[in-house]
Structures are given as C-alpha cells and as structure tokens.
Amino acid sequence: MKAIEANFDGLVGPTHNYAGLSAGNIASTEHKRQASNPRQAALQGLAKMKALHDMGFVQGVLPPQARPDIDTLRRLGFAGTDARVLEAVARQAPELLSACCSASSMWTANAATVSASFDTQDGKVHFTPANLVSKFHRSIEHKSTARILKAVFNDGQYFQHHPALPGTGVLGDEGAANHTRLCSNYHQPAISFFVFGRYGLDETRPVPGRYPARQTLEASRAVARQHRLKDEAVVYAQQNPDVIDSGVFHNDVIAVGNQHLLLCHEKAFLEQAEVYKTLQKATAGQLQIVEVPESRIRVETAVQTYLFNSQLLSRDDGKMIMVVPSECENNPTVSNYLSELVNTDNPIDQIMAFDLRQSMNNGGGPACLRLRVVLNEQELQAVNPHCLITDSLYSQLTQWVESHYRDQLKESDLADPKLLTESREALDQLTQILGLGSVYSFQKK
C-alpha cells in the first residue's frame, strides 16, 4: 500500500516571546528579554508550510496552545478575575507568568512520538504526547496536545492515542525530537531509532555535567511498548554527554535521518562506532550513514546554525531535499559543506533555506517546527482535512495572523489582560477554521 510522510507544523502562537526559559538551549537563553514579533514568527512558519505544499508534499498544521495559561496559574494559588490573576503573578512571580505565556508548543517535534501503522503490531498509527517534564513551561502542554492530536487524527479505526507517560524525571520524554524512523520506503516496516540522554534509574551511567539530559532510556522503552513495536525493530542509543553540554539538548540538533539515510555529527552518540554497527545490523546493511567530522564543522557551529535541525524530504525520484534555516546559508563553513554534500554520493541533491529567524532566536529550526506522520492512503483520508494546507487555507491563516497577532511583544506585555483576550478570540476563530471543535478549556466554560 502506498504511503507518504506528512509534516504537521506547529503554528506559532500570539504570545510568542523571548523569555529564555530553556536552559541548555543556547539560542533561547541568549535572546532572553529581547522584543519578539509574533506576527512575523507565524508568517515565517506559514511560508515554509506553503512552500512545501507547493512542491507537492503533504503538509499539515497544528494550532498553538492557549496562552497565557490561566488554568495553571490558578492551580498555583492565584485567584480572582483573569485580570487579577495576571496582575498578581506579574508582581509576585514574573517567572511563572513567562512560563505560562510561552508559545513553545510551536515546536511540534516535541509534541509527541508517532509510530507508523507499518511498524505497529496492531496496524494502527500510534501517538504518545510527550510529558516534557524537564521544563516547567513545556510540562503543562501535554493535555492540550492530546486533545489537539485527537481532533486532527480522530478516527479510531486507524489512530491509537495514548496518554503521556507519568510526569517524573525517570520517564522524561521529549517526543519525536529523539526518534527517527529508518526504512527503505515509507510503506515498509522500519527500524525505530530512539536516542536518549541519560538512564533514569542508573546513576552510574555517563551524564552531562553542565546541562540536563532531558530524554531517558526508560521513557523511550515505554513509548516503544505503548506503540507495540517489535523488539528487533527498535534501536536505542545514548547521546554523547559532551555535546549536550555544548547545547545539543535533543538529538535533532546533532542528527537527522530519513528513510535509508542518517546524517549526523561524528560526536553525536556515545560509543558511536557501536551504534553504527547496531543500526547496520538492524537495517540489514541498507542504511547509508553520512558522518560530518568535527574538523569540518565544530559542534558549536552546528548548534549556532542548526545544520542538523533540518528536514530531509523524499522526492518521487528517490532523491532528497534538505530544508535548512537561512543561518546555514549565511555561515561560510556550513554553506561550503552543504555545497559539497549535494555533489557527493548520497540521496541529498537539493538544499532549500528558509528564514525562520523568529523561531531560531528562541532555539528552534525547521525540524523543531514539524511532527512527522507516515500515513497510508486510507489513513490520510481519515485525517481532519481542514488541517491540511491548501492554497485557500494558507490564505485564510495568513489573514487570520495579520488580523490577530501583534508585531511586537515585550516581557512587560505578558501581563496585559488585552493580550489574553486577543489570544482567546484568535484561537476560538482558529478552531473554526481548522474544524477542531472545542479543544481549549476556555471554550468549555
């Protein structure tokens, strides 16, 4: 049965701001408290979606979450009207307000882990929202993520939804940013490659010393069990603790894979040679590994430019397009490397660069913005069609953004009750455009 890989990008929310909430994410902390441009951020993301749609790829869109998150602030003891809650938290605990205003759900690579029906023993597409317990501002996302995913993939005949793993550090789960599906063709059973940063229950194992490792082996194994993946079709590898300390907070900052190709830095994994052997054995020697040496591109340069936080897209002719942020084009070292890459013996023969500066300044590139979902023809037909990009939907969403989003947002604006009202009005209209129903708690009051 024919299959495609659809990319579902997160639409940047109206409260997109630079609060520097993500320790270990260098771009996030470096731009802390700078003014952001939510309108430009959303339009940049939409432009990427539209461009891939125009090239014939199936492109979906996932809505942002409701922010400021008043429900969470009330759970933390703030009371009164919404305006009073915002005023009190801004005065007493501004760091909580920043966290509850984060638009980080735009990075849907962290939203969930998805397994294709070709890989699962029950023949369904499985979804597990990530608990994201390593960061408070992200740990409050998974319930809304679950509702949104169920509204987009809402046919129980084809889609199986699981709850997030228990919210404990032992089971820290960061979603698809640490999962890669390796196969010859999308319609064939694949190897699921899970990369983790630490062992949750074994303190004797190597860990980074500067920044926290977010994904645990125990979480990866639990997701594989939930999704009913065969043991022999799963490979686990640990991130190199040294690269985590250099700002590689997820595997998708240091490696990217698609079908039978894995592009990674030579320092990506612990015991990297053994990881390669295990992957080659699991894929019957069909995997092509392109390793980028430190002598060509230093880890720090890869983090600055997000070279590996790219999208690899398969064309019908068997070749691949590599979607990179414009920072790669603007860095001579990386640009030269990419020019050589397309002229060497590997499937990549085209580089496309996109201006995603608003997202990049907060620590997320092209790969962060999308959740990959492999679907057969029947499953694609079962997806909520209002969430698939068309020329008409792109125009609607562009007009929606231009009508509802501010072109500047500063830290002091987060307590503005008007921002809450603007965001809720915008999201209420968005759910109608995308045919999602009432996925936000404020819609149910």
Automatic annotation (TrEMBL):
GO terms of molecular function: N-succinylarginine dihydrolase activity
Pathway as given in its UniProt record: Amino-acid degradation; L-arginine degradation via AST pathway; L-glutamate and succinate from L-arginine: step 2/5
SUPFAM superfamilies tied to this protein: Pentein
Similarity comment: Belongs to the succinylarginine dihydrolase family.
Function: Catalyzes the hydrolysis of N(2)-succinylarginine into N(2)-succinylornithine, ammonia and CO(2).
EC number: 3.5.3.23
The keyword Iron is assigned to this record: no
Residues the record lists as binding substrate: 19-28, 110, 137-138, 214, 252, 362
Organism this protein belongs to: Endozoicomonas lisbonensis
Top-level taxon of origin: Bacteria
Enzyme category, top tier: hydrolase
Keywords: Arginine metabolism, Hydrolase
Gene: astB
Descriptive protein name: N-succinylarginine dihydrolase
InterPro entries: AstB_sf, SuccinylArg_d-Hdrlase_AstB
Subunit field text: Homodimer.
Active site per database record: E174, H250, C368 (nucleophile)
Keyword Membrane found: no
Catalytic activity as recorded in UniProt: N(2)-succinyl-L-arginine + 2 H2O + 2 H(+) = N(2)-succinyl-L-ornithine + 2 NH4(+) + CO2
